């Protein structure tokens, strides 16, 4: 049985790349050979794409963590793709769990409060 939440993981991977670069390295790798080539090129070395887009990471470890994350998120075969839990447990996202704002509110709590506010405004 397929885990269809992994479709969301793919979408989140695409959005993460777009948030970092304001670009898409490929559109739909299953659409045609050119898009598949772009996908394979990106997956073989995501850092090359990030460098070409002038993305600046705070450290080489952060860059490595982002590349590892998007490579896991953008596996064509859903069985090979990481789960949403694995995304949340990734080294890249774990650094934000340690973030605290000036009032000592943990990032997770801050995010939940922001989401609740947005939901109330609807």
Describe this structure in words.
By secondary structure, the chain is mainly α. It has a domain at 5-89. It is 63% helix and 0% strand. It has 7 helices and no strands. The chain has helices at residues 5-21, 33-44, 46-52, 60-73, 84-88, 91-97, 107-121. The protein is globular, with a radius of gyration of 16 Å. The mean pLDDT is 84.
Number of strands: 0
Q: What count of helical segments does DSSP give?
A: 7
Please describe the biggest sheet, giving its number of strands, its sense, and whether it closes into a barrel. none
Average of pLDDT: 84
Relative strand content: under 5%
Q: Structural class, from helix and strand content?
A: mainly alpha
Distance linking N and C termini:
35 Å
Query: What is the helix content?
Result: 55-70%
Integer-rounded radius of gyration: 16 Å
Residue runs with pLDDT of under 50 for 5 or more positions: none
> What would you call the shape?
globular
Q: H/E element string?
A: HHHHHHH
């Amino acid at each position: 049985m397929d885990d269809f939440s992994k479709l969301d993981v793919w979408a989140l991977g695409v959005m993460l790349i777009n948030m970092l670069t304001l670009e898409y390295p490929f559109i739909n790798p299953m659409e045609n050979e050119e898009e598949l080539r772009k996908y394979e090129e990106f997956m073989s070395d995501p850092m090359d794409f990030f460098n070409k887009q002038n993305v600046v990471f705070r450290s080489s470890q952060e860059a490595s963590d982002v590349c590892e994350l998007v490579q896991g998120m953008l596996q064509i075969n859903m069985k090979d793709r990481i789960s949403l839990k694995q995304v949340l447990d990734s080294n890249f996202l774990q650094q934000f769990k340690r973030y605290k704002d000036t009032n000592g509110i943990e990032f997770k709590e801050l995010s939940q409060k922001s989401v609740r506010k947005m939901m109330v405004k609807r």
